[in-house]
Amino acid sequence: MAVVLALAMVQQVSADSMDDLINYVVNLITESLIAGIKGLVDLIVQGIHDSLYSLLAELMDLVIELLIYNPPLEPAYDLWNEVRMIVTSLYVLVLIAAGYRLLVGVVMDSNPSRTFREWVIKTIASIILVTVSFDLYRLILDFEKVLSASLFVNPDLSGFLVASASVLLILFINVFLVIGVILMFILRHMLVMAGVIFFPIVLFLCLLPPTRKIGQTFLTMLAVIIFLPFVEVLLLRTAMAAFSSMGSSFEGTLFNAVFGLGLMLMMLLTPPILLQACFNAGATISGAVESTRQVTRIITRTIPQKSTQTTLNQYAK
Questions:
Q1: Alpha-carbon span 209 to 83, nearest angstrom
Q2: Core vs surface per residue 145-163: b (16+ CB within 10 A) or e
Q3: What pLDDT does residue 115 have?
Q4: What tens digit of pLDDT does each residue of 162-191 get?
Q5: pLDDT confidence of 84, banded at 50, 70, 90?
Q6: How far apart are CA 224 and CA 219, in angstroms?
Q7: Is-contact 310 260, C-beta < 8 A?
Q8: Where does the pLDDT of residue 82 fall: very low under 50, low under 70, confident under 90, or very high at 90 and above?
Q9: 190 and 228 in contact (C-beta within 8 Å)?
Q10: Which pLDDT score is estimated for 60?
Q11: Helices (H), ranges, 68-111
């Protein structure tokens, strides 16, 4: 009986040990699987992080090159020449119309010959500008390139890259924002090529009073397109100088990361902001000029009347 009881106890202990062993093995396998999955996820995340970081660095190098690059205008020369010839022929119609108004006496000015002479001078000056518009356009582009290159020498992008790499989500967003900036510059280069073709038309529109506002609007758009890299360089240089101001603490790194995100957004939003600012400034200047003309017109109409009335009173006395 004692032997049977002892055997039963041994079997019970063996069963408990087997259960513990099985539980231990299961827990070990589970922890190993969890650790392996976590390590695999960390490896994938780190690989994505490193790939995005390298991609962002290469994209920013491309942005720097695009900031100081202007497309060659020679491929558009033939089209520009055809447009120039068409626009130049239109000036003949302008001179004929001005001469017709002089002959029939439709000109409302007190001195029609002076008005006709001013029209001839403006037309000749506009013809000269249209004739040299290709070289003038290229000179403006070269001037913008010199400004941008002189302002942004040996840019230090490490602060922006390190700040972007601190948060994976911000790094991911910045990659897409920088791609958007690159696409914006590619579009800008296409518009620059198209601008040299339409530049003679814009100059012609600025001559005629009915189309002057349209010409000035297109001229403002061309100025924004041409000088966009200079504004972007100024913005980027100012931001690069501010990246190291917060130090390497967690708060400073987080601030730099958010600041870098805002920088890319500002670079994308710069063209519409510049256009709106130029249009507002143009409207303000036009309003001021128009107000000055009205005041001058009132003064010139009022002073002679008062002087004449004073003279008559003196003769009456």
A1: 21
A2: bebbeebbeebebebbbbb
A3: 67
A4: 777 777 777 788 888 888 888 888 889 999
A5: very high
A6: 9
A7: no
A8: very high
A9: no
A10: 84
A11: 77-104
- A 10 A CB-CB count for 36 gives 10
Largest CA distance in the chain: 160
What is the C-alpha R_g of the chain? 37
Q: What's the whole-model pTM score?
A: 0.71
- Alpha carbon 284 to its chain's center: 23
Angle, to 10 degrees, between the axis of helix 112-131 and the axis of helix 168-207? 140
Contact call for residues 261 and 177 (beta carbons, < 8 A): yes
Please answer whether residues 88 and 130 qualify as being in contact, where contact means their C-beta atoms are separated by less than 8 angstroms: yes
User: Are the CB atoms for 151 and 46 separated by under 8 Å?
Assistant: no
Rounded to 10 degrees, the C-alpha dihedral 49/55/61/65 comes to -150
Residue type, 122: K
Instruction: Name the residue type at position 101.
Output: R
Which 3 state secondary structure label does DSSP give 71? coil
Give the tokens for residue 56: 């962002």
Q: How many helices (H) and strands (E) does the chain have?
A: 8, 0
Question: What share of the chain in percent tops pLDDT 70?
Answer: 62
Report how far residue 235's alpha carbon sits from residue 181's, in angstroms, rounded to the nearest whole number: 13
Give the tokens for residue 248. Answer: 């390497």
Mean pLDDT of 250-276: 69
Tokens (6 digits) for 271: 């063209």
